[in-house]
Amino acid sequence: MIDSKKTVAEKRNYSILDVQSAKNVAAIWLKKAELQNAVEFGLPEIDDRYHIWRIPLIGKLGANPSCCIRSTTLGARSKCRY
């Protein structure tokens, strides 16, 4: 792939490379917390300054819940806050 066509995640060799992968990691956390039916995902975004994926959660949990996943560790240190 030509370097200019690579995404930020690909250029930085992150473990989580795309929106669907970020949502999958967040879904695992939500299932463990028994919240999988309480929220839906907003549009995830990568924050390359802090090396995280930020995933908005839309639902009944309150104001501005989100899930932050470290993009370098396959979500091993991910956490959601609400």
Verbal overview:
The protein has one domain. It contains 2 helices and 5 strands, in the order ααβββββ. It has helices spanning 8-11, 19-32; strands at 39-41, 45-47, 52-59, 66-70, 79-81. Strands 1, 2, 3, 4 and 5 form a 5-stranded antiparallel sheet that branches. β2 (45-47) and β3 form a beta hairpin. The longest helix has 14 residues, at 19-32. It is elongated and about 40 Å long.
Structure at a glance:
The chain is 22% helix and 27% strand. It is an alpha+beta fold and 82 residues long. The longest helix has 14 residues, at 19-32.
Instruction: Give average pLDDT, whole number.
Output: 80
Shape: elongated
**What is the helix/strand order?**
HHEEEEE
The number of E-state strands comes to: 5
State which percent range the strand residues make up.
25-35%
Q: Please give the count of helices.
A: 2
Radius of gyration: 13 Å
Alpha carbon gap, first and last residue: 39 Å
In helices, the fraction of residues equals 10-25%
| Total individual domains | 1
Sheet with the most strands? 5 strands, antiparallel
Class by SSE composition:
alpha+beta
Question: Can you tell me the residue ranges where pLDDT is under 50 for at least 5 consecutive residues?
Answer: none
